[in-house]
Amino acid sequence: MTIDNELHLKTIKNVLIILVIPFVLYLMKLLSFIFIPLVSALFLAILFSPLMRWFSKKRVPKIIALTAVVIIIFGFFKIVGELAQLSSKEMMNTDTELLFAKMEAKLVDVVTPIEEFFGIDTELGNKSIHEIFNDANLISYFGDTLQFLQKFITQFLMMFFFLILLLAGSIDLQKLMKSTVTKKSIASIKTMLKIEKSIVKFIRVKFILSAFTGFGFGLACWGFDVSFPIFWGLFAFAINFVQMIGSIISTVVLSIFSLAEIDSTGSLALFCLIITGVQVLFGGILEPIMMGKTFSINTVTVLIMLMLWGYIWGVPGLIMSIPITVLVKAILEQNPNGKTIARLMS
After folding, report:
1. H, E, C per residue of 28-72
2. For the whole model, what pTM was predicted?
3. How far is residue 180's CA from residue 107's CA, in Å, rounded to a whole number?
4. Alpha carbons 320 and 179: distance in angstroms, whole number
5. CA–CA separation, 272 and 221 (whole Å)
6. Are the C-beta atoms of residues 162 and 143 closer than 8 Å to each other?
7. For residue 194, what are the contacts with CB-CB under 8 A and spacing of at least 6?
8. C-beta pairs of 67-76 under 8 Å, 24+ apart in sequence
9. Predicted pLDDT at 132
10. pLDDT tier at 310 (50, 70, 90 boundaries)?
11. Which helix (H) or strand (E) holds 118?
12. C-alpha–C-alpha distance, residues 298 and 303, integer Å
């Protein structure tokens, strides 16, 4: 009878967990304005944890250590801002009207044979690119620029506030892990160290390889005289943080843009081959080698988590999907009932 009761309670517990998970995900989507900066701050805090421990060993006052972290963060944004200014100056010095005209002519040359083959009449040749953009209402997808900036600044300040709290020790992640996931201190410490090692390595490797990818894209654009090499380098660097699909997007978008810039078919093919080779080298070869066995996560799991977190949080969810997956997998491995799911994710 006791065994039956235990099985009954276990079944009820599993059913409740299954029911609670969708509700929690719904809340995370509903309260994304809080959870996105909070989770971002969590991963940044994990990234800076080794540095904070080093300061602690050297008996550096916590206020000085926090100041150093703040200087590093704002220094990074300063460098990005300077590059963005160079990119904007680069665009302002380019005759965009001529560029649009060339792009329009190339698009007509490419699309017209396809229209004739499939019997489609889009009247592309009778409209300018500006008119096509207006007809498609593409601006509506990006929203109002002022609202976007306001939302970005608000979430950045919230993330910065949460980051300071986490680094200052106001929220003890190890104790939180002990009270919620594992009841043993040693197990909670090992879990936190494993999560920290995995996420730090992921961010470090991803940052370095994304930087080299952006440099490769910018250098290819400069070599083939494609407009806005700094912008394309920054674009490739930023979107490369979106696992798997980011590299495809940057390669396809730049290849389409280069249609208007490169007249020779052979040069165009070589340019597309070079930027594809850059993505394959850094994303397909070096990244798995440098990651090693840090991430034992299969492709299906990566795709599912990309779709899930992309749906819940949009672009921030796509960027944070892999660190979140690492966190979830590490937690599941500490739970006897979750080890089977963790193995399936591997």
Report:
1. HHHCHHHHHHHHHHHHHHHHHHHHHHHHHHCCCCHHHHHHHHHHH
2. 0.76
3. 57
4. 25
5. 10
6. no
7. 330
8. 69/163, 69/167, 70/164, 72/48, 73/44, 73/160
9. 45
10. confident
11. helix 96-118
12. 9
Residue located via tokens 């660097």: 237
pLDDT tens digits, one per residue of 47-77: 888 888 888 888 888 889 889 988 998 898 8
| 35 touches 24 (CB < 8 A) | no
Q: Which amino acid, residue 288?
A: P
Tokens 């988590």 label which residue?
A: 305
Q: What is the largest CA-CA distance in the chain?
A: 83
End-to-end, the C-alpha distance of the chain in Å comes to: 38
Confidence band, pLDDT 50/70/90 cuts, at residue 144 = low
Radius of gyration from C-alpha coordinates of the chain: 24
Looking at residue 304, what is its pLDDT? 86
The answer to whether residues 249 and 300 touch, using CB atoms and an 8 Å cutoff, is: no
**Contact call for residues 51 and 327 (beta carbons, < 8 A):** no
Residue type, 338: G
- CA-wise closest residue to 37 among 158, 144, 120: 158
Query: Token pair for residue 149?
Result: 């900036």
- Look up residue 76 and give its two tokens: 């990074």
Residue 17 has pLDDT above 80, yes or no: no
Residues 6+ positions from 62 with CB-CB distance below 8 Å: 55, 56, 168, 169
Helix axes of 299-313 and 32-57: crossing angle, nearest 10 degrees: 120
Contact (CB, 8 A) for 69 and 167: yes
